[in-house]
Structures are given as structure tokens and as C-alpha cells.
Amino acid sequence: MPLYEHVFLARQDVSAQQVEQLVEQYKGLIEGAGGTVGKVETWGLRTLAYRIKKNRKAHYTLMNIDAPHDAVAEMERQMGLSEDVLRYMTFRVGELDDEPSAMMQKRDRDDRRGGRGDRGDRPGGGRPPRRAEGE
Question: Could you tell me where the beta strands, DSSP code E, fall in the chain?
């Protein structure tokens, strides 16, 4: 069977328990059609890059799915009808990764800056020199 990674965004005003109920509902739909749901990651309430249906935040959830295409298509159809689901996206992958996704891995803040610190390598501590009024 094909392998999929599926991410969906639930409205900000639903509770975490309601998000878990949505996951269980879609999980039951996939398993009823002969598929399996592997890893389920709840990424929590995160800020959106732009408003979606008047929401500034959403509950993000990732599901690893091993199921026939028809089951995934039916799950997507039901998500499209649900008022609680803002967006969803499904990717077909060659293999499923059992390790935590990049969203769940805790990274040290210094690692992301490339070791240069807080712009300390620039003269003046990273601030451009001030110009006088007449210049």
C-alpha cells in the first residue's frame, strides 16, 4: 500500500481534546478501509503566517498513514466538509520516518545562528553608525 504523511490544521477555538477526537475519527476511517496509522504527532497551537478563515492560530497535527488511496481520499473529503479543519495536506512518501519530525526536535538557539552569536562580529555591536542631521 502507498505511504502518506498527512498534516491538518484545526481551528484555534477547538480544545486539545477535540483535536484528539478528530484524530481518532480520521484514524478509525483509515483503519476501517484496511489501512494503518503509524505515528501521530500533535504540534500544538501555533501562529499562522496569514489569516485563514478569520483564524490567526491553529492546532497542527501530523499523521503517518499506510493505506489505499481511496481511504485517504475519503478522509480528505470529510476534512473538507468539517468546519473544524482549516487546511490539510497529504504527501505520498517512499518510506515513513519513525523518528520525531523536525517540528518536534528541540534545537538549541545557538545552533541556528551559525556560531556567529548575536551580530557581535559587526563593528558597533551590529548597529549601523548614526548619521548627523546635515548628512
Answer: 3-11, 36-52, 55-66, 85-93
What distance in Å separates the CA atoms of residue 120 and residue 86, rounded to the nearest whole number? 42
* Grid cell locating 26: 480520521
All three cell numbers of 4, joined, read 502518506
How do residues 84-94 score in pLDDT, each as one tens digit? 999 999 998 88
Phi (first) and psi of residue 129, to 5 degrees: -65, 145
Cell of 65: 498513514
| Residues 6+ positions from 26 with CB-CB distance below 8 Å | 63, 75, 78, 79
Which of 62, 86, 67 lies closest to 7 in space, CA to CA?
Answer: 62
95: Cβ contacts below 8 Å, ≥ 6 apart: 3
